[in-house]
């Protein structure tokens, strides 16, 4: 379904489930139209239907964002058919594994989704976003961005990229109508795999635990307020303060030992 370019849309990636679904419905609940991008067309279509029931327009697009050609196709569809005013780069991948044992595909998927896709989507969609007087980009990082972690290794590094990328581009675009924000969620029970890993961490895994609905609400509110860095939840803010204070030589082995429980 193609709509007139007079309609304005917010783009959400990874919108078929978990936090992405919550971002989509949070936007729809505010009366905002959405373009939902997900690897699973059926899941994205269901969320689009939920959004339409809230009285908004919503379009679903199937795309594998680990594939550059697919990223380009999505951007061509969006730029050629819709006016957009917001981009929520939510799609991402994570996990826990011994680096010596994980397959190449595990590493490639994390970097492709968390680093390459975010940079390329932002680069390709910026010209369209700049056509409106005021536009917004929200990039989803993680509390893991604030410290290296053994047995996750690539994931925290990829989320640190999101933080640095967002802050740098925000400064570069400070005199334009584009506002960039980065959100750092803590643990969320978004699917059975993630829930299992959180539970295996014990009490530590539940520190800062928030529902994806709460994170999405705080993220969208912060994005529209133009906040540079969004850390949802008082416990996560406290954890960030501890991260700044506790030396890495103490922090890194402690956190890594706890995360190692996920491998059981």
From TrEMBL:
Keywords: Oxidoreductase. GO terms for cellular component: membrane. It comes from the Bacteria. SUPFAM superfamilies: NAD(P)-binding Rossmann-fold domains. The lineage of its organism: Bacteria, Pseudomonadati, Bacteroidota, Bacteroidia, Bacteroidales. GO terms for molecular function: oxidoreductase activity. This is SDR family NAD(P)-dependent oxidoreductase. InterPro entries: NAD(P)-bd_dom_sf, Sc_DH/Rdtase_CS, SDR_fam. Belongs to the short-chain dehydrogenases/reductases (SDR) family.
């Amino acid at each position: 379904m193609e709509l007139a370019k007079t309609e304005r849309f917010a783009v959400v990636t990874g919108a078929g489930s978990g936090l992405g679904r919550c971002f989509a419905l949070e936007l729809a609940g505010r009366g905002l139209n959405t373009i939902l991008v997900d690897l699973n067309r059926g899941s994205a279509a269901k969320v689009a239907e939920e959004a339409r029931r809230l009285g908004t327009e919503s379009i679903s697009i199937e795309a594998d964002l680990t594939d550059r050609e697919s990223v380009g196709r999505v951007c061509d569809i969006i730029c050629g058919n819709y006016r957009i005013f917001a981009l929520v780069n939510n799609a991402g991948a994570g996990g826990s594994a011994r680096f010596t044992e994980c397959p190449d595909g595990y590493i490639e998927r994390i970097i492709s989704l968390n680093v390459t896709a975010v940079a390329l989507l932002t680069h390709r969609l910026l010209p369209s976003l700049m056509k409106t007087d005021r536009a917004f980009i929200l990039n989803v990082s993680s509390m893991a961005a604030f410290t290296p972690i053994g047995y996750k290794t690539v994931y925290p590094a990829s989320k640190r990229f999101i933080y640095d990328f967002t802050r740098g581009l925000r400064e570069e675009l400070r005199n334009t109508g584009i506002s960039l924000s980065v959100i750092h969620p803590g643990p969320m029970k978004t699917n059975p795999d993630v829930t299992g890993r959180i539970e295996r961490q014990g009490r530590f895994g539940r520190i800062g635990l928030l529902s994806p609905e709460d994170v999405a609400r705080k993220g969208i509110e912060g994005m529209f307020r133009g906040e540079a860095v969004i850390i949802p939840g008082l416990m996560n803010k406290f954890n960030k303060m501890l991260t700044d204070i506790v030396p890495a030589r103490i922090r890194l082995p402690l956190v890594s030992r706890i995360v190692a429980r996920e491998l059981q």
